[in-house]
Amino acid sequence: xxxxxxxxxxxxxxxxxxxxxxxxxxxxxxxxxxxxxxxxxxxxxxxxxxxxxxxxxxxxxxxxxxxxxxxxxxxxxxxxxxxxxxxxxxxxxxxxxxxxxxxxxxxxxxxxxxxxxxxxxxxxxxxxxxxxxxxxxxxxxxxxxxxxxxxxxxxxxxxxxxxxxxxxxxxxxxxxxxxxxxxxxxxxxxxxxxxxxxxxxxxxxxxxxxxxxxxxxxxxxxxxxxxxxxxxxxxxxxxxxxxxxxxxxxxxxxxxxxxxxxxxxxxxxxxxxxxxxxxxxxxxxxxxxxxxxxxxxxxxxxxxxxxxxxxxxxxxxxxxxxxxxxxx
Length: 328
Ligand code: ACO
What we know:
CATH topology: Peroxisomal Thiolase, Chain A, domain 1
Number of strands: 15
Order of helices and strands: EEHHEHEHEHEEEEEEEHEHHHEE
CATH class: Alpha Beta
Radius of gyration: 19 Å
Active site: 114, 253, 283
Subcellular location: Cytoplasm
Catalytic activity: malonyl-[ACP] + acetyl-CoA + H(+) = 3-oxobutanoyl-[ACP] + CO2 + CoA
CATH architecture: 3-Layer(aba) Sandwich
Number of helices: 9
Keywords: Acyltransferase, Cytoplasm, Fatty acid biosynthesis, Fatty acid metabolism, Lipid biosynthesis, Lipid metabolism, Multifunctional enzyme, Transferase
Strand order of the largest sheet: 1-7-6-4-5
Bound molecules: acetyl coenzyme *A
Strand content: 15-25%
Shape: globular
Region (ACP-binding): 254-258
């Protein structure tokens, strides 16, 4: 039987670190409010010269090095992003492929907001297990700062830029495989989080100008997110007959410390099991899970064969969870 294996992980964080106190200068907000309501202390913003594909390229290059494969071994590149370099073409996956020197191989983007990395895992697993492709490069890359309204205190303090990448390869060893991935969506909640596309016709909503920036019904998203994530995580564990205590690392999407704590407490995970990076990076959308996984990997705690549980919730709304053994 052929399984899919997450062989290597890597991330890239842009240089400029932005503390909460920087927002105090221009907005009616405080470091205390941001930390208390979200857990966020800092986030990193890319420079004007750096685009999403540059961040993704750096993470992808390191993931490739760590996998022991060459760029020429990659059969497919998929990128999840809500902040692509271009509006709809060329895809960020095509741009990263070109930077890596990958030619004549399929490349495309997906748009599932913060659930991006779970959707990427689902696609990579399906392509490998169906014998369609062998070595797949998946990348969550975001320059969220390029779609933030820096006059909206309800959104701009929450997000950061960064990228995470993984190489997914075939294996015959189930104990080093991606065991299960669950993805879902409910477009009925499409107005909870959205980025308006400003055209001549839609430039004004109820007489108000709307910027092409992320808009979010924060509180409604918070409540739906907590409820959905808890039931999704419970379901994937039950379906695979795995107890929370058997999971080495629970790596949730990093949107808000209160969401992570609520889900972690419900599942009775210990603080050693739950990976938290939101305080450092803020919400880096599709990049947040691979960036967090890379942090545990680089700390030396994440070992080959460790069992990892992932979960995410984001715009669409979309959500998903995954159970996998790390490394080949
Ligand atoms: N500083 C100070 N006050 C603020 C700020 C700020 N930065 N932002 C909002 N407030 C105010 C609001 O205006 C409101 O004031 P009011 O009571 O006078 O109206 C008050 O704080 C409370 O606002 P709420 O929105 O109810 O605050 P809440 O506790 O819900 O926290 C937050 C807001 C942090 C956005 C939270 O709701 C959240 O994390 N939501 C979920 C985010 C998420 O998971 N998104 C999904 C993934 S993202 C993606 O897919 C792109």
